[in-house]
Amino acid sequence: MGDDRLVGIVLVSHSAEVAASVAALAKELAGGAEAVPVAPAGGREGGGVGTSAELVSAAAASVDRGVGVAVLTDLGSAVLTVKALLAEGDELPDRTRLVDAPFVEGAVAAVVTAATGADLDAVEAAAAEAYAYRKV
After folding, report:
1. In degrees to the nearest 10, what's the CA dihedral of 95, 96, 101, 106?
2. Which residues contact 13 (CB under 8 A, 6 or more apart)?
3. Residue 74: which of 13, 130, 10 has the closest Cα?
4. Which residues contact 2 (CB under 8 A, 6 or more apart)?
């Protein structure tokens, strides 16, 4: 499977720094996984804390390889932003899916799974399973 057929991953955070850091961490923990298209979409266009529909839409377009895009979010209004874009119908690539998963652990699981060439359903399932990671 060529690199051009991997599921894309978008990480939506209220903070540009958090989104970029989680993207970098997920790729590093996935053994580099440089082939996996991952894009952060954090903060607002002009800087500052918040979420931006424009940044999310651009990030999704940048990682779309035609086999699906998994979007993970951090907090409530990021979820609402992505849901609004999905409802529009033409703002995000076909087969874009909001994934219910913890932000950091889910991102790592999504990138690791996408790197294997898995499909969107498998990437979503792996990210969602991260809710079960016990820490104590």
Report:
1. 90
2. 19, 22, 40, 41, 42, 43, 51, 73, 74, 75, 78, 103
3. 13
4. none
Q: Quick check: 111 and 33 in contact, CB under 8 A?
A: yes
Distance CA 75, CA 43 (A): 12
Q: Are 12 and 78 spatial neighbours (Cβ–Cβ below 8 Å)?
A: yes
pLDDT tens-digit readout, 73-118? 999 999 999 999 999 999 999 999 999 999 999 999 999 999 999 9
Q: Please report the DSSP string for 40-104 in residue order.
A: EEES-TTSSSS--HHHHHHHHHHH--SS-EEEEESSHHHHHHHHHHHHHSSSS-TTEEE--S-HH
**Among the listed residues 12, 16, 1, 76, the one whose alpha carbon sits nearest the alpha carbon of residue 38:** 12
**pTM (predicted TM-score):** 0.94
The three-point CA angle 58-62-66 to 5° equals: 120
Q: Report yes or no: 108 and 30 within 8 Å, Cβ to Cβ.
A: yes
